[in-house]
Amino acid sequence: MLFYQLFKSLIGQTITIELKNDIMITGKLISVDQFLNLKLSDVQGTDPKKNPILSSLKTCFIRGNVIRYVLLPQDQIDTQLLKESAIKEAAKIKEEERKMQNRK
Amino acid sequence: MNLEVKEPIDLVRLSLGEKIYIKMRGDRELRGTLHAFDQHLNIVLSNVEEVLTVIEIDEETNEEIMKTTRRNFEMLYIRGDGIIAIAPPKRF
């Protein structure tokens, strides 16, 4: 849930997504779900010559599993908070696994 | 924070805030400072350098030529399914 929360906090910001097929898409983040699917508006392909279709879209939905990278706006990220959340998340997952083990 | 390495993921946890090396699918390598990860190995890095290695074969001599392309990112989210290996910084 850590990255779901991270993307939720970035709603309204402009982000650039690089897909696994090397396409880059820039747009305003509209929504995110538990699979880290992303919805963008004001979409622009960063290379309009290569992907003319992208510049004809206003909004698009990107399935989470085709994403390779997301370029984040550095000034919007609290790295200290991220680090603490990552530690908490890791501890939570361990605790859940321990419970599952005990149940068996 | 527990400093023991019992499970593989502990190695990643102990590298938080440090510079790590990531080997990715498609002959990509990343170096950057680790800020967050989860159980899928989705990761956030800052001050990232990506090195993309492409091997081209010279048509005349049949020689393999390694070409590297470098890109830099300030802050990057990396989806875990593309990750092959993570190496923590060297500790001496």
From TrEMBL, chain A:
Keyword set, alphabetical order: mRNA processing, mRNA splicing, Nucleus, Ribonucleoprotein, RNA-binding, Spliceosome
Organism the protein comes from: Anaeramoeba ignava (Anaerobic marine amoeba)
Coiled-coil spans in chain: none
Name of the protein in question: Snrnp core protein family member
Keyword S-adenosyl-L-methionine assigned: no
InterPro entries named in the record: LSM_dom_sf (IPR010920), Sm (IPR047575), Sm_dom_euk/arc (IPR001163), U6_snRNA_Lsm2 (IPR016654)
One GO term of the biological process aspect: mRNA splicing, via spliceosome
GO MF annotation, one: RNA binding
PROSITE patterns: SM
UniProtKB/TrEMBL annotation, chain B:
Locations listed in the record: Nucleus
Top-level taxonomic group: Eukaryota
Domain Sm intervals: 7-92
Single GO BP term: mRNA splicing, via spliceosome
Key words of the record: mRNA processing, mRNA splicing, Nucleus, Ribonucleoprotein, RNA-binding, Spliceosome
GO molecular function: RNA binding
PROSITE patterns reported in the protein's UniProt record: SM (PS52002)
Principal subcellular localisation of the protein: nucleus
Gene Ontology, cellular component aspect: Lsm2-8 complex; spliceosomal complex
Family (UniProt): Belongs to the snRNP Sm proteins family.
UniProt-listed PANTHER family: U6 SNRNA-ASSOCIATED SM-LIKE PROTEIN LSM3 (PTHR13110)
Name of this chain's protein: U6 snRNA-associated sm-like protein lsm3
